[in-house]
């Protein structure tokens, strides 16, 4: 889902105009994603969520970011733009086809040198990082991959983050399904369980905000 469903079209259009100046490169990426991926285009994060993540990078002084679920590269691009020149993005995905779109736009934006794309199951990439010297060094991690694997992603995130680092969990409202007791499919159940886990997790200080399809921010204590 690419926008908050509680906002009508007029109010959401105003929100974007009041928040973001037009960025042709980002709009071309969004348009190409819609054209090439069709029904999957909603996997792309919303414009306001992208700017929210950029602001968070600036507030934190973040330099090192990892994301699970890169798709066509929009989230990696906006975060890379916000990072300092020596910043680093580790982008995890399994689709060479979709990430190839992102690679072209990263290069055009001049941030390709910041992006380390790992084409492998994200749990494998995160496990390897957690077992090495990069454990405890990431400033921000964004989870937007396979919902059934969210708990595993979250646990590895807490190993990879530095104290005071932030894990962002996307789609935590899941189109409203998490609040519908009749929705018991595996993905919905996994998101619902993680929402409750994070709420009660003394290792983090967290909030769930209604941006996009719901975004949890959890600060590692």
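^ Assign residues to that structure.
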């Amino acid at each position: 889902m690419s926008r908050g469903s509680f906002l009508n079209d007029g109010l959401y259009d105003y929100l974007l105009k009041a928040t973001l100046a037009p960025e042709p490169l980002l709009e071309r990426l969004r348009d190409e994603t819609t054209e090439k991926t069709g029904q999957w285009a909603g996997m792309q994060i919303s414009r306001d969520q992208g700017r929210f993540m950029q602001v968070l990078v600036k507030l934190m002084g973040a330099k090192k970011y990892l994301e699970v679920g890169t798709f066509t590269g929009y989230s990696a691009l906006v975060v890379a733009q916000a990072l300092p020149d020596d910043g680093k993005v580790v982008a995890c995905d399994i689709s060479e086809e979709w990430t190839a779109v992102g690679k072209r736009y990263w290069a055009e934006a001049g941030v390709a040198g910041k992006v380390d794309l790992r084409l492998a199951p994200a749990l494998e990439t995160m496990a390897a990082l957690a077992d090495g010297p990069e454990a405890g060094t990431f400033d921000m991690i964004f989870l937007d991959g396979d919902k059934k694997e969210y708990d595993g992603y979250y646990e590895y995130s807490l190993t990879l983050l530095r104290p005071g680092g932030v894990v962002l969990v996307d789609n935590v409202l899941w189109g409203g399904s998490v609040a519908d007791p009749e929705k018991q499919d595996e993905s919905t159940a996994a998101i619902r369980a993680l929402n409750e886990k994070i709420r009660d997790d003394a290792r983090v200080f967290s909030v769930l905000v209604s941006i996009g399809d719901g975004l949890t921010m959890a600060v590692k204590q």
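The chain has eight helices and seven strands.
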